[in-house]
Amino acid sequence: MSTRPTKDQLAAAHNTTIADVIAPGLDVLFCGINPGLYSGAVNQHFARPGNRFWPALHAGGFTPRRYAPAEQEQLLELKLGITNVVARTTARADELTGDELREGGKLLEAKVLEYRPRWLAVVGITAYRTAFGFPKARVGCQDHRIGDTHVWVLPNPSGLNAHWTPAGLAAEFGRLRAASGERRNR
């Protein structure tokens, strides 16, 4: 879809799902909270204009240029992927219940054990805390592992997250990039 979705298309996207961008043995599997309606309507992760995921991914050193959401499948060539804690689309992440997030955490854990990425990067500290039961977790590398997979929590790149500037997001993505490169070389 090359144009913005209509109001009807956005409404029709409510409670739908979009496919993961995933393969075995990724370096980093990025995990959103859940897809928004815009993403559901265009069937692309982090697709809403104003979402800062794609700029932060590039500024953090993961991609050679800024990718567009329509290029999400090209991430696999870079050994990167995308999934979500909860698969269903909503207008806002706060529409999700604690039970949904905890169940999503269990499903995500199973997915990580199956695909075995070196790193799982959850974008959203509050969702991570709820999904995995770590209420005091902070942004950054976690002690928690899933099998052999290291876990890192990144700030939510939504334009609604005013606590993090684009420069702050880029720095945090860059910290993960540096850590993931270091661990690869060990």
From TrEMBL:
SMART domains: UDG, UreE_C. GO terms for molecular function: pyrimidine-specific mismatch base pair DNA N-glycosylase activity; uracil DNA N-glycosylase activity. Pfam families: UDG. Its EC number is 3.2.2.28. Keywords: DNA damage, DNA repair, Glycosidase, Hydrolase. The keyword DNA repair applies. It comes from the Bacteria. The keyword DNA damage applies. InterPro entries: MUG/TDG, Uracil-DNA_glycosylase-like, Uracil-DNA_glycosylase-like_sf. GO terms for biological process: base-excision repair, AP site formation. Residues 19-177 form the Uracil-DNA glycosylase-like domain. This is G/U mismatch-specific DNA glycosylase. It comes from Amycolatopsis iheyensis.
